[in-house]
């Protein structure tokens, strides 16, 4: 599935990967668009989400306007969150977002996609 800023793939019933396009603007609208696209996949079973930000992604302050994970339906369908951020600014933005918008969803930030996928695999196997 493709959105204006990402490609979203359901690799299996337990895993969705959201890959932002090069130079993407990460703001409230793009985050919401991706969330709605992910939620449109069939089924109600919870799944892990790996979101991958390219080095040149740009964070807009509107990202912090709303808690994307406050909706009970989103929480029910989100088992794990892994974020891949190759630059320090994106790492900081993700940590700041969740400091402002705490969630009980298990989450981590990684510097590489293989590390994120390994963590998700390990966590899913333990469930």
Short description:
With 127 residues, the protein is α/β, with parallel strands linked by helices.
Overview of this protein structure:
The chain has 127 residues and is α/β, with parallel strands linked by helices. It contains four helices and seven strands, in the order E-E-E-H-E-E-H-E-H-E-H. The strands form two sheets. The chain has a five-stranded mixed β-sheet with strand order 1-2-4-6-7, with helices on both faces. The mean pLDDT is 93.
Provide tags for this entry.
single chain; 127 residues; alpha/beta; five-stranded mixed beta sheet; two-stranded parallel ribbon; 4 helices; 7 strands; 29% strand; globular
Strand content: 25-35%
Mean of residue pLDDT values: 93
Roughly how many Å is the radius of gyration? Answer: 13 Å
User: What structural category arises from helix and sheet content?
Assistant: alpha/beta
Biggest sheet statistics? 5 strands, mixed
Low-confidence stretches: none
Enumerate how many helices there are, as a single number.
Answer: 4
